[in-house]
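Let's do one together. I've listed all components of the complex below, 698 residues spread over two lines.
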Amino acid sequence: MSMIRFQENPLIRPADVKPSRDDVEVVCAFNCGCASFDGGIILLLRVAERPVHGPHEVVAPILHPDDLGRGLHFLRVDRQDPAFEDIDPRVFRYQGRTYLTSISHLRLARSADGRNFRVDDAPTLFPLLRAEEFGTEDPRITRIEDSYYINYSAVSRWGVATALAETRDFKTFERRGIIFAPDNRDVTIFPERIGGRYLCHHRPMAAMFGRQDIWLAESTDLLHWGNHRFVCACRPGAWDAHKVGGGAVPIRTERGWLSIYHGADESQRYCLGALLTDLEEPDKVLGRSTQPVLAPEADYERAGFFGNVVFSCGAIAQDDGRVIVYYGSSDEHTCAAETTVDDLLAKLD
Amino acid sequence: MSMIRFQENPLIRPADVKPSRDDVEVVCAFNCGCASFDGGIILLLRVAERPVHGPHEVVAPILHPDDLGRGLHFLRVDRQDPAFEDIDPRVFRYQGRTYLTSISHLRLARSADGRNFRVDDAPTLFPLLRAEEFGTEDPRITRIEDSYYINYSAVSRWGVATALAETRDFKTFERRGIIFAPDNRDVTIFPERIGGRYLCHHRPMAAMFGRQDIWLAESTDLLHWGNHRFVCACRPGAWDAHKVGGGAVPIRTERGWLSIYHGADESQRYCLGALLTDLEEPDKVLGRSTQPVLAPEADYERAGFFGNVVFSCGAIAQDDGRVIVYYGSSDEHTCAAETTVDDLLAKLD
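Okay, and this is what the predicted structure of the assembly comes out as:
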């Protein structure tokens, strides 16, 4: 594997992040979007919080509908309650409904060298919409001209949708609403218009036939999306047999759009792969890595809040061909690894 | 119940429809969109066909990828094959994949009086896209100015998406591609712009939390959709406990947008209900019928290809307040019933 992990990994741990309020703890700081900004590197972390609670209960923190700015209420459930159903560390069911064990917001971290980060003390994008009542997750940042477009998962009782926000200075942010209805996540907006249209890869979940495939969509304004076309599917028997989804914003290369995506197998082991799509028609797949370009092998990738996971929401492509991939490890920490465009292209089938 | 069934029901039966090719039979002619056109009534039927086959096999007709215009191939499966899994008359699974037992196309039927229809001999919109390889289903027709916009379910191995076509004369049709990625169906486009935007109700299927709710979306061009907002959900314990979805194109009334929608309970019994949403912000629900406005009670609604189903894709609202609701019965026939706007409004809670 030609992806070299940073020696400083994990770059950011939950203990490095100040809780957003006194009655919660930060359990995960991971799955960051990233951008070059103001001579340094900006990360937009997903920070997951939950109230301190006893071993015999589980708690779902939920945005309070009467206080959408910052208020939370806590659904506390006794694990002995016959209406409680344990799923995994991230999710439980209660009285037939699905809840998350933490609520995520998005928070900035800043660095001059891309290795040593200072995390902001306060949330950057806290859940605000009813469709975000269970949290805002997994941001991707795409710079187009002078704006940075941030898309993220908006989670609620109604499912996992994708919302958009926009900033020019990473100080003020304009929320632009839900751009993909549930369930749809892992949206990566391309960094330039093609044929006059904005494009993105997205990952609808097709319930009826049990599919989780990557699709292409186009837009005239980044707010309204259409002309959906299938891109690629899971591969039975492979490391990405169970699910696939976009990861980092696609990188333009001479051979095509290079995407770092994630795939999971039936055991919920998440790896990163490389996908190459046509420069003009990025629903056409030109190549795909048969083996992962990064698999959970380091200690901090194998154990944690939800182990055996590496999951990227962003990468920085440098002019010299180097690519810094930021990724979450074990749904808990923020890490990075270095590779090159040539190395990734060499992995394609 | 103040909805009066037409004495002529079923108006159209499968035997009234000429097969699109010699080696298939028409098994269902149902779930039609409708429009007033040229002094009469146009129905756009969903016509489901399958090859004649023996009792010991099941056959999935699939659009041939090398002949997207009209070619089909037939996946024949022995019911004794251990890789075969029976689901219901509409669907089976084989080797872990989901297939349909018939393939649907859309076909016009024409009438001067709205009761006696002549079905065209040839398909109007036959599956054409790869994303339509399992069929085109359940059209809705919305007239806006001089154009008729037809949205329909595009079904393939990748799930159930929604596609758009446009016509001005019901002779030539322009296909406009996939407007909602899978799984999303039951799209009803409003018949006028509101605040400069086109609107629709749509019904994503949120796999992760097992939801099938009605949402609102907006568009500037009918091709790209965004600003998704939740409208309404299933009601536990009610006749619409298991799924809901848009039916007929919303009708403007003084009190709000009146929609005839479908709901199913846990036993897959499909009924029609009424929904009233705000004229300016049709994600706001003003009323909803606690009881069905039409339930499967007639013989042709209780027995058939998939019994205990009434399902509407269109209604004709007349200037005098009468509403003719066209609907499919038992996933097999085309029927109609008459009611009034006032009667429907009186059913709201």
